[in-house]
Amino acid sequence: MSTESLIRVTVLVNRKPGTTEEEFSKYWAYKHGPLATDWLKRNGIIKYVQDFEAAFLDPYYQEVIQPDEKELIDMESIAVTIGVEYVVIEEGEIVERHARNTMNSIDIPLKDKIILITGGASGIGLCLTKQSHAAGARVLVADLRTTPEFDSFAAGKSNILYVQSDVSHWPDFLKLFDACEKKWNDVPDAYGICAGLFEPSFSNFWDDPEEEKGYKQVDVNVSHPIKLTRLAIKKSLGRGKRASHAIVGFVKSMKDSEPLTGVKITTICPGLVNTPLVTLDKREQYSFHENKALTPHSVAKNMLELIQKKEYGCGTVLELSKAGTRVVPEWNISPPSAEGTGQNEVELAAGLEALLAPIQATLAREKAAKL
């Protein structure tokens, strides 16, 4: 057999309920593994993709292999990856075909689960909405308003529910949970907290326009994730489910809480992302260039991995930059690399001047007013 004709076959299964990991491993290594491998070779499955489906109709598979599989495998969980194709098998027959799943080691799949996404109608949130739907999830989208792109995508999809809400108004959270229980008779299994503000003119530390109700930006970017996390724990415990610096500190402080709550809390820290939050004035102030920014799609993809992969435990802070990903350690944290910004040191220095310019102008005005 030439190397050109080799095709990778990956089988993903769950253990049969009641089977321990040790029992499964021994049975697979010494009994079922050699039996199945010999059968695969004889039927040419790793050589010819077109033989794959026919091989499962082989009498030897039906009489010997499949009964043996039932001794240790949850037969409803079998999924197989062959080359660039991903298939699902039920009772020896291929019942679904998909493009190959590019995510590795999915430990907690979102298929048939409910995910609540705040800010899910635009930017990173919309990308997460699309990718969660593609993963087979039921998606509850919370946002102030929809967008044409969201409306077009969600049209006719019964497993996407939009609820108009303001995440800075806490009673709206209860409205979300009520809508979820009314639609699906359950509460969310996962949460994608994407709603945020990026130094808007109506809520800005340096311009300081707010005088009565506090900082809206803090309400949205800090208070909303913390409050929703608390509600998620409360709601999940009630149903028996096991599922900025302020936010980084909060997530890290919760790293030991999962055994108590059954809820995994993580966060992602991307660099500058090309979303509608980057308005024209922000592009100038933050030296924004599309070819040097992250895409909402890449951020959403890594958020899904945070949710679904066991390697990212409770308290994980995942940094995402042009250089790739990094789990931010608890102590002795080195700064992000310059390469991760897509800019060289000269560009970074010029960018710092542009970043400080509006702040310096505000301070100059305030100083002049007192003279």
Automatic annotation (TrEMBL):
| Residue stretches spanning the membrane | none
SUPFAM superfamilies attached to this UniProt entry = Dimeric alpha+beta barrel (SSF54909), NAD(P)-binding Rossmann-fold domains (SSF51735)
- Does Repressor show up as a keyword for this record? no
A GO molecular function held by the record: 2,4-dienoyl-CoA reductase (NADPH) activity
Q: Ligase: is it a keyword of this entry?
A: no
Gene Ontology biological process terms in this record = fatty acid beta-oxidation
Instruction: List each copy of the EthD domain by range.
Output: 16-50
Gene Ontology CC terms: mitochondrion
Keywords per UniProt: Oxidoreductase
Family note = Belongs to the tpcK family.
Task: Give the protein name, as stated in the record.
Answer: NAD(P)-binding protein
Write down the species.
Answer: Trematosphaeria pertusa
